[in-house]
Amino acid sequence: MLFNRILISMAVALPLIACSDQPGKESNSPPAADTTAPSLPPATGSGTASGGTTGSGGTAGGSPTTPDPLTPPIATGPSSFTLSGPVVGSQKNDTYLFKICSGNVCDRWQSTVENGVFEYTFELSQWPLDKSVLIEGNKLDASARTNTNPEINNKANSYFKTELDSLANLQKWDGNKDGVLNEKEVAKLSFDSVTMAYQTVASYLLANQLKHHAEKPYDEKHQAIRNYLLENSLNTLVIPTEEQLQKFKDHVDGLKLGPKNKFHGEYTMPLTTEQWAALGGKAETAIEQQVIRLNTAQMKTLYEGDSNREATGKQFRLTVQQSALIKGELVYNQQLVLELSALYNLLAVQPPIELTLDYWESRQVTDQIKALNPGDGEATHFEGTYNVPLNAAHLNQLGLYDVPSGKNVSLVVNASTMRDVYKTSQLDIQQKKTGFYRFVLSPILWPTADKNLHSIGINVLQKLSANPSRALWRHYRDSIVTEATPVKVYTELEHDFNADLQQEYRFLHKVNELVMANHKHPLKPSILGLAPEKYLRFSGRFPPELQSASLQIILGSRPTPKPGEHYDNGRYPERHNPVPLLANDGERKTTLDLKGQNGFVVKIALRDIDNHFTLCRPGRPYEGQYKYEYTADEMQDQLTVHIVDEKTGTELRSVLGSFCELAQLDKKVGNGNDILEISELERLNVGYVSTAQSVLLMKMSLSKYGTNNYLHPWRHEQLVAMYRDMPRKQVELLAAVVALQAKGTLLGNKINLVERATFYEDLLALAGMNIYGQHGRLSTNNLLPSLEAIQNNLNAKVSIGAILLSKLDVNISHIIQEITSLLSTSTVDSYYFKNVRPGSWVTVYPVSSLDPICQVKYNENQLFGIGIAGKGKDSQGDWMTVRWDRQIGATNYIIGWQTTPFSDINSAANKITTQKLYATLPALEAKGTYYIRIQSDVGEVSETLEYRPHRTFLADSRVTQGIVGDDSTRGRDSDPSCDPLSGKAKNSNSDGFLGARYIKLDAKGLPLRRQDLTYKQQSFQCVLDAQSGLVWETKRARKENQPYSIHDDDNMYAMAVPETAGEFTASCVLPELNISSSDPAQCNVANQVKWVNQAKLCGLNNWRVPTMHELYTLLDFGKNHHMYMDTRYFPLTRLPTTSTLGTVWNIIRQGYTHGFWSTNQSLDQKKNGVFIPIWGELQQRDIHEPHLLMLVSDGFKTEQQ
């Protein structure tokens, strides 16, 4: 039985053409169900092609033919295999006739083309596996679709054909082993003009210059052809000197018409003797003849360049004609394939061209119309001809350049055409469109004279061989074009361009389009496929702890932009893809299974796309203003080893460098065995250290704003230098984290550090990078992270927090000592630790509330953690509550205070004794200054806390650096000395960024025993600011399946209930009901204050809306966090915008950002201040809007004992 289904999946806008002799025997199967179904004879093969139905039997018009003997399929192999590739130029409603053959077994069907991708699935048991596969087809016109037995028409403009290797060998090219082979794996699966031109050139070479390769196996034969084309392309790149470029630009500047650039004619560029020799020119050539005549297309490209690829303004490649004039013979190179492809493309049916005028051009045409139609009414009178001005963009659409006179170009249209265009414009205006005039031109038509493209191409190559100094398109015209079959040009432009110039420009334009094709061009896969492959073998090792490992080699330093992003413009090749790994039998894989091993030997295959293997210049070719330049050449891009352990999730990486440099390294320092080994390249030790280095290298490679948009491959010597200069402590700590993940246990507990999609993403996060940052922004800068930053990020891991909670005598210093010791047993990383003990820099300090600097200066006999826990005013006057940390062995504490300093607590004018850890001092005078000291019954008296009741406390700016001469380096935020009250360094970040003093409280208002854990590790309900005495409500990020809470961070409230019912799209949670409401009568600020006080959050019932000044005390102007707040203590996960609330609210605009209500009220009492942390500012907002609410309390107050 024969099953057919044809799939066309991507419509593209270039016409497809090709030709070939018909393959041996053939048979057909019915078309798709949605097409007209002719009665086709049955087929001899079996497979599935999308869109068809089932058939079986023999060939057309005769008895069945015995097929060639089949190669028996391997019993353990796959039963089917799929080929897929684009049909370039196909449109949605086109119907194609397809034919596929292998040996004498063929299949044929027709299908409506919907998306532009051909797909065919072979039932392997029904096909010979050792015969070449031929695929051909063409688009069917209306008459052919009704034919009961249509034949492949190899003279059709849409004809295509491709010859592939045998099915047995094609399966080896399926690197990802998904059973589908496409044009990215085998370029000739793209049915387009480049594939056809290559096959024509290949056929000609195998019959002439390379006939000794004609009988070789398919892959060997075509590798020889690509190598031949490559070798002949090596000396086609011209890099002018600065002087040559300047003289050239001076010439083009002289062609300008006013401010407009004009491009026409040729430019003769004299070459240096060295340049002439590099291009293969003969030494005996006279100096005055050592020149290149740049054509118009080259002039335009070299002068304007490509803003995305700066190299295009500094170099160009020779045309076939220019190479022939230098060498005196036809050069068979990649440029020849592109020029023949351009001709094939022009011979295809071209779509009409619509030119739209701009406002000023439309006005000029309107003035001509009004000359015969005065007044304001609709024009009805048209006669004579009309001159329609065209600009450079229009010429580009037409595939033309400027006229030799340099004047502006115009279309000349007759009255009938102008009347039709005018009517269309009036209809556009009625439909509220611009009404700019739109002119539709028939394209230039290049005849084929009823010849197939292969025969045209062979004829052109024969004539080129005899007369290589004549342009390729002219040889075509000499052979094909006659008076009976002329080239049809733009008649509307013949007054400016004669027919010959139009044809020359059109050909040059099409060639230049292919030469300059970016990576979104539909023919780019086939253009890249012209390059031959080069191979490299290397061996390496990795730690034996990874017992379920697999390996990939990844190509690319700069990742491919996400679809739709700003940089997704075709500038970049597809990167961060695994390269093919070759087995001895030629089978390709993208992943190598290394289970139970700790070493590898791999052979990789990459294409020499830019012919730069011999030049080998990895790195950034040209700096450029924005450093956008990036190599598309696989020889020069960066290779990185990725090893992933399936069991532990551990990921190892090692940046190797570029292919061309690695290959040269093997020859320079290698042992001659053609394998790059560890002794020749240290980075083949793929271990914990190399992984840490790859993380830090990524950080260093970002832009100063932390984006990855300018990443580029590093040269070998640069990698060596950067790895040498990386700070050892950061390398060791990151490497130790990798070793910990591989081991899977810490201090007797199982541990898994993976919190993100992959372990490597967690490693990047430790170094301050987020791989999912918007617009490629992974970080805020490209500075290497400090040891403290990595340590803090490690300390914040959930799994680390679980161990710290279970082991109260352990802190992060103990953990770092433990994990760095793992590196001492890593043989793979031993090269890094010659005469150095891993972790020798680690200082272990005991679990204490004191910072290490304070542990050195003070002892545990002294009280620490002294701060303000509340303040206010009552009938006796002002009051304040002081708090302190528990002292071991103490049962009673004496608090003494008075308005003058004192040293002996017993001499204080006022004293309180308590067993608690806080006490309230009553009846304070508003304008007084009080000196407060505390002493336990087992310790020494504390340092003095100085307090003024009505002092307005503002948080430190957290700015640690400023202009020369300012005082930003003389505040609390820059003082590293010990604060004897808190027991922290004055600029410590451990209790709040640079001088802030926050204390996490539980639901009862008690300090958490471990203040060094994150909210994710151990949640807390409130935060005490020990500098001001304010207690802040902690907002909660509710997880899925958790009950609702009045403290959820997405609850929103109106400051006042609207008088009239309106749309309130925000919502809040009703207390103790686990339901939410969108009723502003419920979701208002007064209700939330009441609910929180009733719940006695953190044991307090004095919660209120904060003032503007109080909210400002939370600001972190140092931008340590994107919220301008210390998110370790204020773990706000999001600030909603109107667009995230579901619908557009009737008061505010789409995308409006919400903040936190304050008491700050406008004079008309219609607005209140809203604090927006991400902007660090307070804005006045309507009191009926929904906003967030974070309540504040004046803190704790106790009765005097």
From TrEMBL:
The Lcl C-terminal domain is annotated at: 1021-1165
Q: Where is this region: Disordered?
A: 22-82, 964-986
- The stretch of residues making up the signal peptide is 1-20
Q: Please state what the protein is called.
A: Lcl C-terminal domain-containing protein
Q: Note the superkingdom of the native organism.
A: Bacteria
Which InterPro entries does the entry mention? Lcl_C
Gly residues bias spans: 48-61
Q: Which UniProt keywords apply?
A: Signal
Q: Which organism is it from?
A: Vibrio tarriae
Say if the entry is tagged with keyword Nucleus.
no
User: Do you know which Pfam families this protein is assigned to?
Assistant: Lcl_C
